[in-house]
């Protein structure tokens, strides 16, 4: 069960911090989505405005009640049907091979067992389906990575369990997904905290 801070306060902070500055990243990561899409870490619904016309249904996983409240007006204005299907990305309430694509934006850092969540993503994707992700994680620069390791325990306590030092691309591939495209770069203004990972990974047909 989520505490008051994680459920009521942090979602409002995230909605602000990951708002306008992240619009270009949201547009990039949602490009090419179609059909039935599962979004893990729906948050306040900021990705809705960027979904392509080919998306017919969005299944949302979001643990914070305030996130869903903040999303209400965006859901009402969205041309696509949004259905909340659970609050835990580690145990998806969906059948095997039931969605066309999965979307995650700055989510894999906070899920306690990321490997389990990615195995679940692999399970629910249809053969040939893809995971679209933009995340932050471990820097390839040793000095920055050591700094991330040092501050992650404290950062995690104030940022909803967010870990700064996960190798997102390695975790995605370990789950059996094949990276079709991937780019990594320092996050502007936060190079000591976040290193961006963006890409698409597919489930073998």
UniProtKB/TrEMBL annotation:
One Pfam family here: Methyltransf_11
InterPro entries with a match to the protein in the record: Methyltransf_11, SAM-dependent_MTases_sf, Thiol_S-MT
Single GO MF annotation: S-adenosylmethionine-dependent methyltransferase activity
CDD domains linked: AdoMet_MTases (cd02440)
Domain Methyltransferase type: 38-132
Taxonomy, superkingdom: Bacteria
Annotated protein name in UniProt: Methyltransferase type 11 domain-containing protein
